[in-house]
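Lab channel / #folding
Pinned by the channel admin:
"Please post every new chain as: sequence first, then the structure tokens as a reply. Keep commentary short and put observations after the output so the thread stays searchable."

First post following the new format, from NK:
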Amino acid sequence: MKNSICFLSVLLFCCSTFPIFGQVVINEISNANVKNLMDEANEYEDWIEFYNASNVPVSLNGYFLSDNAKKPLKWAFPNIQISAKSFLVVFASGKDTVIGDFIHTNFKISSEGEEIILSNDQQLVIGQVNPGLLQPGHSRGRKPDGSATWFLFDNPSPKASNNNLTGYLGYEPTPAFSVKAGFFPSAQTVELSTTSATGIIKYTLDGRFPTGSATVYSAPILATKTMVISAKAFSNGNLLPSFTAKQTYFINDSDIDLPVISLTMDPKDLWDDSDGIYTNFMSRDEKTCHFEYFDKQKVKQAEITAGVRIQGNSSRSRDQKSFRIFCRKEYGASSIEFPFFTERPGVKSFSRLTIRGAGSDFNYTRMRDPYMQRLLKDSPVDRMEFEPVVVFLNGEYWGHYNLREHHSKHYLETYYGISKNNIDLLFHRGTTIRAEDGDTKEFFEMYKYIMSADHNDPGFYKSVDKKLDLESFTDYMAAEIFYYNEDWIDHTASANNIRFWRERSPEGKFRYMLWDLDYGCGLKLRFLPDFNSLEMVINPNEDNVHSDMFRKLLQNKEFHRYYVNRYADLINTVFTYENMAKVAYSIRDSMASSIPRHREKWPTSIDWNRSIDKMLEWAEARMNPARKHINDEFKLNGEVEISLDVVPAGAGKIKINTITPETLPWKGIYFDGVPVTLTVIPNPGFTFEFWAENQILKKEFAKSITIDVEFANDAFIAHFIATPADPKLIFTEINYHSDPKTDSGDWLELHNYGNVSINLKGWSLKGNGDIKVFEIPDDIFIKPGGYIVFVCDTQKFSAQYPEVQNHIGQLPFSFMSSGDIIQLFDFKNELYLMVRFKSFDPWPKEASGTGRTLELKNYQNEQDSPSNWFAGCIGGSPGIGFQDNCE
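Reply from TO:
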């Protein structure tokens, strides 16, 4: 961190404020509010204080706040005023509400600091301030109120005067380390330094965060074994103590090839007889820790000071315990930024993480739960990703762990883009359903509706699906039943470890989350693979709401068919032995090198590799009984094998129910008495022709068919014909600058002047220099002599042309009113067609802004030639050839 004194001098220059109706100024600001001021929801949000230094009230109507210089009018003040010599606080929370005296903007302030801009409706900047990076509970403000002098406050005064506060010029610079954290083959000598003449460095070596009583640094530190050095600078001047810096030095630990987490904290918070979380493992107390993450290349990629507590239920009593990490503003930041999970590289921000010691699978495979969740990575059920890691606790090797995502409101905010304050997140354990966030009201309303509604009603399925995401619910039930997770709905208890949620909105549906599957796939082999968990869940010893809903839904023919076919689809793909073994061995290989040393730390007589083999033996033996349970429970007519193929090879794919096999020919097992749906998907360059005749199917030309397969070993073969290597496509009409009175948005017409249908799967459109590309959706064909209109605004287009049905959109780009370039790329991503048009001579300028369109004269002439285009009729002729009916 750079010298805070220098930073503050720059800040004084940047925080100038100009007159606004009698000197209303930004007077104090905090992006690290953890204890000073709560909003109406009892939450500590960022805040900005305004002060009216004049002797008259001042209205803020017509003034704006923003955190983006390019969007100075981002948030408008409500019609309020500040009394003379008074203060007003606005919460920068992102909630964008006004509830009584609690006013919230539509943006938050970055915890790193960013420019906050006050401006008027002419976009004139009235004042601006950057709070910078603040320590928790601190603020920046003017002293005296309204003056040009800014200070740092460790005891902020929102809604009150700063005049009596102790102001500091900034923070001491954070101490620098002569050696970066990392892995070393031998001892390291580490020097600490500061650029400040007033700074006194103090440090610890046992995990504690340095306080005023810590050791004063006076000589280099020799790290002869793995060690964590924590340092902080204190001031003998007018500066507050620096941020704490922690560095872990791994000595003779370079043989580790997994990512490494260094977790450090005050030993008292771990081991104290009355207060330590490791000693008092059933406590849910949260303590302060520091989290460092080193990747496989042994480079430190992320670190954060956070909260930590012991995670789990019965596993809390084990010697190696699990930890849950809480990123909160009171520790410094509300999230840690790094893509920890290789299976989800696009997710880079986490507010909660779990460092899990494998739960009940502790002495066995150490991967059971994450493995079963990884199998369902393409499922609509919510799951938690993982990464195997090695953990050091206060510098001591603590073994192999699985770094996990955590199902919380923050997880849902990340993956679904919904506010964490607008969620019902429920957890069912034993006889209790409790709300971790929100409440249970809507769930029990839904349950009441499902149980009382007529399952024979034709609208039953759709009405339930509006309240309960049936795809999520189906996959959740199918997975738990196939795995037979004993710690779920079993023969001895009502229900356990069931998490589900909804967005609190009229469109919100309940979705289910996979949670704690350790007892699945035959842990300890307490139940054999032929155990009928389907029957047990439908008819449990003790009723529970989930079994009740499942049982009722299965009485509905549409859901019954969907569930049976989806379960069969999963057994034919995800739950095949080949796939389950492939995923298991991949995980095994990724963590194998960490097991020998882990077993030295936490001894057991159980063979790790053999535990994995036993799990897979159970899974292999599960497939046939799982199918038999379906057949017997629903009194079906037996299993049938269905074969799928296409002619010629590679011409397309066939979707069966919910899956699309990657390779053909393909075989899967389904059930006589439950119709399946087959749908062809032509590959680029091919057009579907017909289904070949078999025992139950006559020659069929429909792309999608639903049939009850009564005979074993039926083959369904889809025949295709190749589309021409040189499709006959041409742009024939362009609307690029509408008459405002009849604005249909920009649009473009494409014509097939050949005699063969063209499959546009994989084709795309692009504007001039525009990085936004419109990928033409699958199953879009343009018939011989046919037209398709690509529109930029479907609402505007449909309002002007309600009769035109052959249009698709929306294009993610529009056409420039002065002219543009439009490009069509084929399925090989090669440029197939391009037109450059202008709104001025020699192009027909009458097509610009008059309601007329550019119409092509002759598709055999040059597409780019201005003489081959003319200004058509008012309103144009989208979707059909030119109609010479001009006024």
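NK: The longest helix spans residues 608-633.
TO: also worth noting, Residues 176-367+384-405 form one domain.
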